[in-house]
Design goal:
By secondary structure, the protein is α+β, with helices and mostly antiparallel strands. Helices cover 23% and strands 21% of the residues. The protein contains 6 helices and 12 strands. Strands 1-2-10-5-12-4-3 form a 7-stranded mixed β-sheet. A 3-stranded antiparallel β-sheet has the order 9-6-11, with no helix packed on it.
């Protein structure tokens, strides 16, 4: 297990995929981690993949076509196995090779891109799964260490300046433009690295959820370094 996670009441670690998908969120727990030490050379896979733009979507056939060393082969087997496990669970995993995400500069005082701490929302019950195999990893923010940006008075005032509708529809405006999904870290907050190779299941904001959604964000990539991420 990962000692870093022990102080955080909202994170629960498991040792296999079945427990990852079957352990219910409850109380403060809204992030479950299959903590594992993956083996193999993921950097070799990254180096041999063909890049198309800032985000390249990779398919299983792309992995099969790579000529790899023994360590590269081990890494590929982990990727393919994760694909199969998630698909069998009913998820739709996507493997991305990421140079960078597009930044949102529509409202300089309120970016809504994935580099901002945010929660995921769905109209139906679902979870977010993610795993970083190479590069910078995602970050989680304990709910107690973050605050919803739309509730911060000075930010709310700025949002009202750009809103042109009726007062009683302001909350709908915030939701429609996804402003209400974003959070900022409180002073002295300590974001948690999701690490490499660990497969995470995060709680999503949906009508039947019994827990708070998990606040997380994409990391700033290092210049010239790609990130290999599976997400669904």
């Amino acid at each position: 297990m990962i000692d870093l996670f022990k102080p955080e009441n909202q994170i629960h670690c498991v040792t296999n995929f079945q427990d990852l998908v079957s352990t219910p969120f409850h109380g403060e727990i809204n992030a479950i981690c299959w903590s594992r030490n993956v083996i193999g050379d993921f950097s070799e896979i990254v180096e041999k993949l063909e890049v198309n733009g800032n985000i390249t979507v990779l398919y299983q056939k792309d992995l099969f076509e790579l000529q790899l060393s023994e360590q590269g082969h081990l890494a590929r087997e982990i990727l393919l196995n994760d694909f199969d496990l998630l698909k069998a669970h009913g998820a739709s995993p996507v493997l991305n090779l990421i140079s960078y995400y597009e930044r949102d500069d529509s409202y300089p005082f309120f970016p809504t891109d994935v580099y901002s701490f945010h929660v995921d929302r769905s109209p139906v019950p679902t979870d977010t799964f993610l795993c970083t195999y190479y590069g910078e990893s995602s970050e989680l923010l304990p709910n107690s260490q973050g605050e919803q940006k739309v509730l911060v008075p000075e930010i709310r005032d700025e949002l009202k300046k750009i809103y042109r509708g009726a007062e009683d529809e302001f909350e709908s405006f915030l939701s429609e433009h996804f402003f209400d999904l974003h959070y900022r870290a409180k002073p002295m907050a300590k974001p948690i690295s999701a690490g490499l190779g660990h497969l995470w299941r995060l709680a999503v904001d949906h009508p039947e959820s019994k827990v708070l959604p998990c606040v997380h964000r994409a990391p700033l990539e290092k210049s010239g370094e790609y990130r290999l991420l599976m997400i669904c």
